[in-house]
Amino acid sequence: MNLNKPLLYIPIAMDGAIPFDECYKWINSVFKPLGIQEITMWTDLSNKTLEDLKQFSAIYIGGGNTFSLLNAIQISKLDKVLEEYIENEGVIYGGSAGAIILGANITCSHMDANKTNLQNF
Questions:
Q1: Sheet of 92-94, strand order
Q2: In terms of C-beta density within 10 A (0-12 exposed, 13-18 middle, 19 or more buried), how is residue 107 classed?
Q3: How confident is the model over 43-91, as pLDDT tens digits?
Q4: Contacts of residue 84, Cβ cutoff 8 Å, sequence gap at least 6
Q5: How big is the chain by its Cα radius of gyration, in Å?
Q6: Cα–Cα distance between 49 and 47 in angstroms, integer?
Q7: Contact yes or no for 81/74 (Cβ under 8 A)
């Protein structure tokens, strides 16, 4: 991870549960002590490209509702861009839902409500 480039934080799985400004305070409290001084937060995923992601040292996708998160990423087509990012040696971290969506299949129906009626896991 290049500490000269910012970390990208995507907290959208918490939408409606915890205000994004609180999420931003939390992510800073976690990563600033580790030497990461610049953190950029995205709550709007529309029209993002690989070029947009290349400016970041890594991506951290936060936890929350896994179905809502995966649905938002699929609708925005960020899933395809994240695949490209990984193929170009990009680094992605995730917490809870943010980690689960990186797997081959989400297995969280016992924990999260599928309020989005997501069918493609």
A1: 39-41, 7-10, 58-61, 92-94
A2: exposed
A3: 999 999 999 999 999 999 999 888 889 889 999 999 999 999 999 999 9
A4: 50
A5: 14
A6: 7
A7: no
